[in-house]
Amino acid sequence: MDDIELYLNRLSSEKEIFAECADKLGADSINSCDELSGLLMSVDEDVKYKLYVSNEKVGNSTVEQVKNVFSEAEKNNACISMEVIEDEFLNLIDSEARLTSMAKPRSLVHRDGELHPAVHIWIIKRKDMGIYVLLQKRSHEKRICPDCYDVSAAGHVAQGEEFRSTAVRETEEELGLKIHGSDLELIGLHKNEYKEKDINDYEMRAIYLCRENVDVDKLVLQSSEVSDVCWAEIDELLAVMHDGDFKHCIDLEELAMIKKAVF
Question: Does pTM top 0.85 for this prediction?
Answer without folding.
Answer: yes
